[in-house]
Specification:
Number of helices: 4
CATH superfamily: Gcn5-related N-acetyltransferase (GNAT)
Structural class: alpha+beta
Radius of gyration: 16 Å
CATH class: Alpha Beta
CATH topology: Aminopeptidase
Strand content: 15-25%
Length: 150
């Protein structure tokens, strides 16, 4: 695939269905309505960015979501919240390009670096991140407690 055919742009509500389908490839299920609502929630929040990679016909084949973190313990960082390229289009440089957009956005947002958390089982993703210059700095466990909301 010729990377010149790939366009990167900010996500829009019309992308919700394809973003939801790509979420399944990451192991998360969400409806297009849920994705659309979440996009609306963060669209005016400058601490979030969601980019999509599209084919010439505007079909979404990948996305990346990042968020800036104001931390006390270290200078401001961006946290990659998700990155996926459709399995039919992987190994063509699309993920690398999406990450370049995330890195440029994070830099312009005043972040010193980007934190990527990746499930221990995603060995192919680990190889990808190392190949584009990321270093594994620690191994940790993630804890979760559902609290609900009113």
């Amino acid at each position: 695939m010729n990377n010149k055919q790939i366009k990167i742009r900010l996500a829009q509500g019309k992308d919700a269905e394809k973003i939801a389908l790509l979420c399944v490839q990451l192991g998360y299920s969400a409806t297009s309505q849920q994705i659309e609502q979440r996009l609306v929630q963060i669209q005016d929040n400058n601490s979030h960015v969601v980019y999509v990679a599209t084919l010439a016909n505007d079909d979404v084949i990948g996305w990346a979501h990042a968020h800036t973190c104001d931390l006390i313990i270290i200078p401001n960082q961006a946290l990659l919240l998700g990155l996926v390229v459709d399995e039919d289009y992987r190994h063509a440089g699309i993920g690398r390009t999406l990450m370049q957009y995330i890195e440029q956005w994070a830099s312009s947002a005043g972040c010193e670096g980007i934190i990527v958390r990746s499930n221990i089982k995603r060995t192919e993703a680990h190889i990808f991140y190392e190949k584009i210059g990321y270093t594994n700095t620690k191994q940790s466990m993630t804890f979760y407690k559902k609290i609900g909301y009113k």
